[in-house]
## 1
Amino acid sequence: MATATEADAMRRAIALAARALGATSPNPVVGCVILSPEGTPLGEGRHRRAGGPHAEVEALAAASAAGHDVRGGTAVVTLEPCNHTGRTGPCAQALIDAGIARVVYAVADPTDTATGGAATLAAAGVTTEGGLLADEAAAGNAAWLTSVRLGRPFVLWKYAATLDGRSAAADGTSRWITSAASRADVHRLRAEADAVVVGSGTLRADDPHLAVRGHDGAVQPLRVVVDTHASVRPGARVLDDAAPTLIATGKDADTGHLPGVDVVRLPRTRTGLDIDALLAELYGRGVRSVLLEGGPALAGSFLAAGAVDRVVGYLAPALLGAGPAALGDAGVGTIAAALRLEVTDVARLGPDLRITAVPTASATAPEEN
Ligand code: AOF
Ligand code: ZN
């Protein structure tokens, strides 16, 4: 059984890992705390960038830099220590070499490449225990774990709407439906994502910038415009150099007005571009988490393709009564086909409500009672 001290250390390791969200792809976020045999923290670390040291190695180095002897100590880590030599050496072996006597981890490594660390540690006589605060640690790594399971990036669809579900007024005006607190929260979502995706309609209507502001040191996400006919104007703000940008167009689009712009040509469907092909292209570029920022038609296409893993709605206490809905056609024609969600969080941001929900396993209607 893990001790209360180890649980505290795991909470700290999860918090350390969370600081690197949006910066480590295609790798996970991982945090680690090294404890002395008496339970005193000796060093801590996190994985900061793909190609950089793993969390365990950074924590061992921090302990050693502080002059601590870690022999006989415990490593508390959010992900099972890796067993492979990839861009860096195997962490299981590094822990064994350092004389660590016990390893407590939260979530097993699900990859074929890195799995097996716990067995290697156990074979070397290190006590190992998995599963401590596994749900919390998995939630902190939800994007990466989902991308490993599905072989495509994790997709979070974010929208802002009035209480009656409209994302713009009848005349098309839509600026600042939600409060400054909600808009700041969206910048956090962008900072945590590898790519931010919008459709060309939103680009025309709002000329959004899509780069992250207010998060020092955040890795800027790849800005992706789904633009079947390459309608983006050369002066659009999304084309500046604040962050990289990718324009996804149909195979036949004329992109002559976009010299020097990174363009990918994708197959078309009846409603626009093939969402699976887009996600495969992004995955190939190392993107493991996508923030889908609209508009309504594109969000409908993603939902119809079964390609939304989490929904975050910012609802402002305002009513419009007319104007476009936050979500367009998602392939739902009858109530039995409604895309059912489970609410996982409700928060108040200034005057607004933020509702987080995930699709339920089956799209059937709940039982009446
Ligand atoms: C990390 N950071 O702290 C741990 C990881 O690309 P590599 O060679 O660095 O290996 C990445 C894999 O190593 C990763 O997918 C995961 O399975 C495992 N553990 N990875 O990036 C870490 N502990
Ligand atoms: Zn490792």
## 2
Amino acid sequence: MELDGKVIVISGASSGIGAAAARLFAAEGARLVLGARRAQMLDALTSEIGESGGTAVSLAGDVREEAYAQALVGRALDAYGRLDGAFNNAGIVGEMGALAQMSLSNWEAVMSTNLTSAFFALKAQLPVMTAQGGGSIVFTSSFVGYSNGGLPGMGAYAASKAGLIGLVQSAAADHAADGVRINSLLPGGTVTPAGGQDNPEFLQYISGLHPMKRMAAAGEIAQAAMFLLSDRASFMTGSPMIADGGMSVRLL
Ligand code: NAP
């Protein structure tokens, strides 16, 4: 078991990559706290994991609120008495469109959900992990905003996801000596609700951008996250780890 006994918080666990990660991590022995806003979906997933022999509890809330980041960590400590890992994965694309026409409310919604939430997560998770003598924190960034990922109409999203990479590098440098590893994961296009799973034309367009000529399944990205959370990645910190089907090395 890759994550045997590890206590891990997952945000964005109600759907897509986060839900796939919850199923995988539980099957690999982790004890989980699942977070997202939709409580019913979290309850259903928690029950499913329990029926499969795994261990999970959930706490619904909004990652834009600092109190929720603290509450997720508190739920882990109440349920399991420790915190070994966090997969900070919740995110939104927001409205797509040219920056000159973009509303401030859209910009702020994307930034608070994708980037300010990371600041809150670190503030909640780091004290517990440093006191314990170690841990692993993973943020879901994106191929968008990195290397060849300059997709049109995604300025706010690209800025938020590129911001995560810088935040992670700085935080990793600050806490490497504490035994806390902090990495970002950069998925390529992934078939999920946010990844356009119900839009065949969009899926075809995004698939075509990848040298592999397909998008990732959510479970493939969950595997990459699991590696970073596991002891196999024991010498990795501050890394923007790419899992993008070759997108970042494609010829323009
Ligand atoms: P998804 O299926 O839409 O999942 C997004 C998750 O984030 C949901 O569980 C959602 O739960 C949660 N979430 C959104 N806003 C939230 C908020 N304010 N508070 C709490 N939870 C919130 O999309 P996905 O593709 O799996 O996305 C997961 C991550 O991967 C995101 O960070 C995304 O940017 C990133 N990513 C995706 C792709 C792709 O092609 N799919 C590529 C690169 C990176 P609730 O709605 O229940 O709150």
